[in-house]
Structures
1.
Amino acid sequence: MHGRILTRFLSLDHPWRRNKINFRKNKVVTDPPPLLLTGEEILWERIESIHGLDKTIDCGGNGHRKPCEYGETHNWYKRSIFWDLPYWRTHKLRHNLDVMHIEKNFFDNVINTIMNVKGKSKDNLKSRMDIKEICNRKELELSNHGKAAIPIFRLSKSANIALLKWLKEDVQFSDGYASNIGRCADLDGVKLNGMKSHDCHVFMQRLLPVALAELLSRNVYEPLCGISTFFRDICSRNLNVGDVQRMKDNISLILCALEKVFPPSFFDVMENLAIHLPDEARLGGPVQFRWMYPFERLFFHLKRKVKNKNKPEGAIVKQYVNEEITYFTNFYFEPHIKTKAKSSSRYGDEDEMMFQFNQVDGCDIPTIFNQIGRLSGKSKERWLSVEEWRHAHTYVLLNCDEIRPIERVFDEETKRLNPNMSDETFIDLKESSFAAWLQNYNFPIWIQDLIRGPSRMVKYWPIIFTRGYTFHTYAHDSDRKTFNYEICVKGANCCDVVDEPDFYGILQDIMVLEHHGYIGLKMVIFNCDWFDPTIGRGMRRNGSGGFDINLSKKYSKYDPFILSSQADQVCYISYPTSKRRRDHWRAVIKIQPRGVVREEEGSTDISFQERRIDDDIGQQFRITYSQNE
């Protein structure tokens, strides 16, 4: 059953079809992939042609008799009532596979097998006894004395302890990203307990490539990293036909690569269902509209309404009606009265302007000052040094869209006067003299306020809620269970340098710059410490296609400030290891903002339930495993 079905989905000329060792023993698979039948074909060629097939309403759900030739020419044992619907036979997507439960069960099988959890591992004595009959893998067969060799996919005891300690001590996300997965680590029983569906979702898509990178050999790690990438891709918010087709090609390769590692008993129905998910995504669209997460959360909400456990249904209905009445009554109060329905959520800042300004006729406030969000915590004051003030002032000028035409005049004039100037010298000159150059010209009132620069006395806060993110300073968050001070910003924000890498850093201060003048311009900027973005020294590509950063390598140039609207949130996760001392490399996990769906042209961010799949990862995996025999 196992190797024959999975290798059928490979291309007809793929070398794995002729592999007589790792898949079906001494058999070459020549069957083409099964065809996707239409509803008409299933109804008339399969169901209606079976003699003695009872309807569901006649035979019930259990205890029905098997029709003629069951198990020989067909596997139908009853006729679904859905076939009586007039549109069912022409419906293209008649069934919806739940990605949430498939992903959870797949993850449970993987983690329990590699950790050799008693009673839950797919690698057991009965599995080893079947190896000799199914495939020709001597390393998994029982010895003459009935002993089973330790497989390459099983973690050692020290590796299991390292993995659980890593989960308990080192894995820390930002607020609202995931629950405390460290609570599931059972060091005494050497296993994971109480993993919820969303915990498995985060672990499978984000932590699995990091957790196993240094604990398993490469030929075991790569297919596991591939299945992690597949689930991350299938859960993307945006899908196109080319992406779905590539996922369909990749999943058969990934599952066959896993079958070369794990025993045949590993592949139950959940592992086989994964191969059908791209076809359903092509017909039904993104999984966010079809999986069970919103329904599970609704069930939890309804269960909390049960006050009379003797009659739970009536209690739910009664409380639900009261909730609806309360919700609609809220809208009859005056606008200034805060109610539950009108109050903004913790992350609901999309309509909340951070500052209000004095209006001047014929003068539009620059978009750079129209920041959304809200500051929180106890504010403090301090004086900026001369160097800090100059860099902050120049950074604001160079990132103001309304100043760009004037900036181009400065660029042209500087290059005309210094035709042989290098790019690095030009950037340094621009940062040091652009603000002073602007003071030689007459501009509108808001530009004059901006050119004069901000006050050197600034206020700074420990917390800011903006664009769906919650940012904390390092001093505020260093002793907490969650980290909200790790940030990322796109490269070339102010100087238009092509191919500049992204910058990763630590948020030190959340400051408000105030420009004196009639308008009273204010804006929030971040003061950050950056890590070296040089590939090979401060950054590197990891096995899952993302980036690692070296915490010991700091950015040599003094350029600490960014706008709050430019910052994205990330998490830095260390690699668990049991063989050597830990180094300073950390895997970068980008955070998707809560309650915000962002559409950005050309964006290739990798984030929780990301917008686009990583083309390079899938293509690289496909090439690797299509050429590996």
2.
Amino acid sequence: MLGKWLRTTSRTADSADGPAPAPPPEPTDDELATVLALLVVSDHDVRMIMERTGFPVDLAVAAVNELGRRNVVSDAGGDFFTTTQGYCPGPCRRGGHELRGQEIVITPPRFEWECAHCRDTEPMAPPGAA
């Protein structure tokens, strides 16, 4: 489980009457897609995600955890994360690293992705379509 590696702590007053820790932020679909786009082309750790997105640590961690909960990303080892979908499902069948610098299309809520070229020539079937 990703949460095992991505726990954060909130600092509170030492007294029992101190403020309760703030709940972790809930990332938006746009924030989730931003993190996923980074992970499609290269494995990243939370620090790298924060540097490339400008997200604070709590949001970067929450986004990776949410994508992990949805089985969209997984632990690649060494605190790095990768996508579970390894290649474009369109006719090009290119892996994410081959798409560096090119546009990809990410479709919530399942956060499947495909390259823009394949999307423009042969769109992905809607979920549940046979």
3.
Amino acid sequence: MVGSSCSLMDRRPPFQKLQGSPTLRNSQSCHYFARVARFGCLNFSQKMHKCIGLTRNLRTQYRISTDLRKFNEVSDLIRDSRTQNRNNTNGLRKLLEIRAQVVSGADEGLPESMGKLGAVSGASQSSGLVEFITSERVKVVAMVALALGLCNADRVVMSVAIVPLSSTYGWSTSFSGVVQSSFLWGYFMSPIAGGALVDRYGGKHVMAWGVAVWSLATFLTPWAASHSSLMLLSMRMLLGIAEGVALPCMNNMISRWFPRTERARAVGLSMSGFHLGSVIGLITSPIIMAQTGVFGPFVIFGISGFLWLLVWVTAISRSPQYHSQISKSELSYILKGNENSMNIGTEKMPKSSGRLPPFGLLLSKLPTWTIIVANAMNNWGYFIILSWMPIYFKTIYGVNLKQAAWFSAIPWAMMAALGYVAGAFSDNLIQSGFTVTFVRKLMQSIGFLVPAVALIGLNSAKNPSIASAWLTAAVGFTAFSQAGFLVNLQEIAPQYSGVLHGMSNTAGTLAAIIGTVGTGYFVEWMGSFQGFLTFTAVLYFICTIFWDLCATGERII
């Protein structure tokens, strides 16, 4: 009975009154305190469980309230973003309405507030033009244009000096032709290797070495001519080798410093310097020779190259990220415009490019061949006109050499002007929403079709003035090719634009040699220039069709 009374399973309340004998009361007292202790532990455990549950509930409620608060904050942000986008859309719609009204001449009834908005828009466009003119990237392209001007001036000096040099040293007509062609020997060898070096080390360093070498070769030409014929030919070859890197360097620097929507304009500015260099060389060389002797132009243009080199090394950076004076806004603008192009911040190509460039991969792409063919056709027509037009005017129209020199200089000035016009026009088309492929096809078609028609018109010209007009059109509109295949190099294979330019330039140089030599044989065979001009026009038409069918403005590698 006692054992059963002392069972721990006894859950009776301990507050009942104790009854019975003293012994029984003692036993009941033991049971009483045991029940009191157990009851207290049970109550404490229950209260602890309640406290823990309450704590968990509070923590869950706090987490829910925090998530709700964050959700409300995100909802507010989304609502504000939608409102801002709606306002921006409305503002853009108003700007487009204003632009349409201004273009159509219906701006008289504009509200005052909208008139102010239009004035602000015009001011922003004006500031954009001012920003472009004063930007660091324009300084870069100006230096590139000067380098290309020196490149072409150093090249054409020999064509002016060849007559007095032949008289002084007793050169035959055939050897005079060898001296003039020795430049092309070196120029034929260097573009591919030079393009690979440009892709690996960047345009700044390779251009610096190129200008230094060709300026030295120009400066030493008088000494080489007086020393030996072999030394003279070596200097002319060295000049060609060094100048072979000029155009790949131009493409590399423009792809680093200019966004995609401004590259055609930048190429136009650079090539304007190239063509003006030809004009300056042809016009100033006779004047300098009259004052300083036959070797004066070689010395002056050589020293000018070293002066240019000092500015280039100290003031120009390899890419905009390394330029200390560029503004943050201009840097951001350039980087954003180059997001889908090559990484302009890297000076070297990826480590895997330590091997030879992928010539097989490049040649397996049809757009590569469109550029090669376009460059070959462009050089074919360019060098035929450059080499044979003075003789053409002398033979057909009886114009003396001095007048023929002016006829030969005027078209190159026209080409320099139209080069920038073509670049700006193509950039505006792309910014207006036209695809890059369409714009490149349009520019190249103009650059081939107008010269073809002009050469046919040149055949029917009755006097030198009309012939000069056709010649100016043929040469001038060739500049539209600069906004065609010459920019397209940077778009289809930006990582290998240098070597691709070298490949196409090698084909172009070969076409120039064949065309220049072939013209003489063709004229001897046919007895006139007209047949060869017609043949060149037909080639222009064929290359236009090939370009329009196969070219693209999208990246292929």
4.
Amino acid sequence: MEEDALLDTIPKANFDSHRSKQRKGKQNLLILVLVVCILFFVSTTIVLAAILGYRESDRNSESSSGDTCTTSTCIDAASSLRKAMDTSVDPCEDFYKYSCGNWEETNVIPEGFGVWSTFGQLGESNSVALKNALEQPVPEGDTGAVSKARHMYAKCMDLDLINDAKEEPLQELIQTAGGWELVKIPEPEQWSLSDLAKEHYWRSDAFFRFNIEADDFNSNEVVLKFIQSGLTLPSSSYYTTSDSTYENATKAYMKSVLMLLGADEAPDSGLDDAINQIYALEKDLAEIFMPSTDLRNVTLTYNVWTIEDFNSNFTSLIHIDHYLEDYFSFAGSDVTFSDVILTTLDYFFSLNDYIENLKWSELQMKNYAKWSLVKHYIPLMGQDFLDAYYTFTSVVTGNGERERYLTCVSLVENSLPMAVARPFADKFFTNSSRQEIADIIHGIRETFKQRLDGHEWLDQETRGRCKEKVDKITQEIAYPEFIKDDEKLNEFYNNVTIDATTEFFTSYIEVLKYARADEVSQYGKPTDKTRWYLPPTVVNAYYSPSFNKFVFLAGILRHPFFETGWPSYLSYGAIGVVIGHELTHGFDDQGQQYDGDGNRLKWWTEKSQEAFQDRTKCFEGQYSQYSLNNQSVNGSLTLGENIADNGGVHTAFQAYKKRGSAPRLPAINMTNDQLFFVSFAQVWCTLYTDEYLQLQVTTNVHSPGPIRVLGALTNSKEFSNAFSCAANTTMNPDDKCQLW
């Protein structure tokens, strides 16, 4: 347990510095020890009396004697907050260091991690809870959903058994997907681009992929959205650097895996040539990839094409109707197709030109496509494959091999998310805690609407429509209700066949086939807006513009984001800002293009739209000036998240102030307003490896944790007032970006 904050105020004696052979020195030492012991005893007695002096029913209540909350929940919160802070830092110069400085000093990035944060700490705590749940014995003859998850986890943890299978499971899959002569698995038929349908079904992402999603302009219907894909490295920018580190790591990774699968390593076997050609093709693709910033532009990425137009314009690529018919038939579905959405239109034109002009040989394309299938299954294999995989990821992302249970929990959690969520929900959630979250959400909603009246840049017509949209937002908290019903949960995974005899790799294939069938079943039906798109147990929350819905997953509704019995300033500073953040996504540079029914319509007046665009430019410029460890933030890529962070802080603070007075925390000489901002900042305490930080700023739409704190709070007048920051100090610049 952490030391109580009350005890942090007791001076610590350095006994070694007082050692002396002189009698007087010994006497002084004894006196000093006696004084310290008396002080320790008195202070400890006070703390224990504060904790034990409350009835159990009052344990988590905000009410307390006087103006200080002395429940055990408040004492623990005070200790946790204080231990992370570095109060030697001026909060008006660097509030992140002020809030997280000591956390950084007392934490290290665990082995196998590229990043470590309070997010990560909660994630690992959740993983331990899931580990314990998945390790529970399965009742004999039980074929329920939770038992399937436990069988899958047990087989994943049996690494010796997985090692004994060697390359065989993956070889069998390659054979099922059409073979691969490079690794000595016969190909019954000559490969062509038409084989992509089968390979994509089995998880290849060669050249492109598609998603079944709600239509932007009619959210009640689903459409097929095609997008660029197929790189081994995290983004296209990794292929254009002059540093050969990533190229060498990728080629070495490919060679290790292909040799394990049976490829001939002799110098004249052609293996090295094949690897060089695969990498060269990926590099060519990277050069025609649409930039990540453009992918956030919902106008550029919505291009409707009929089947006939696609086939007549992309004559060298694939017949899109044949491709879809084959893919859907593998998943057991037979439907008629009309239109498709090309998310990355220019990419498809360039890709077609490359193929038409014979930029790559058919052998080169085949080897690339086969590799694009194989690479997705390496984490499921034995230790030899894992060694190759983690050697590669440690260079590229800073992530390496972790404790086996963490890997297995993650794999099972993502394979059977609702089954895994059931024991987690049983252990950690009550109706009262869900109601408390619902109350905070209500307060955030009402405050956001009230704040709209103060935004003079919005005209009355647009303001009214914004309020209507807020009222139409639907919400989900913790987990879907059906997982608490054994019959419904078991029916949900009825078509997944996993028992005690099912090998781990086979279990994964069972889940994949189930997921593919579920995926294609959505097409041709009205959009199911009740679907959950992330496992309930992960540390996250999300907003869907097409559904106009936000979801707060069970995994994030724990400390340091939420705890029943926290004073309002802690709850609103942590989970309250998260709620405000997700709500604001409905009004960021992407979300504000969708109305209250989730449709992309012109529902703003021109005047308000122009004012909105002018204000977003301020955020783009502000965040582009930030850097962390010499890695610059991309203000365009992160624009939507930065807008949401700022809106979340403003809205949550005002909502908290409407709650009225709350008792102060013990042994922290800070106001409740100040603690609101500390609670917010400590959610983002983060340590990065250089590799992971580069990955973050290159590919992630979120700014790095420290920047999220600094960026949002420099725009907050309430923050500057709370800490009495002088004008034009680092955290209180004269020019502030303001939107929501």
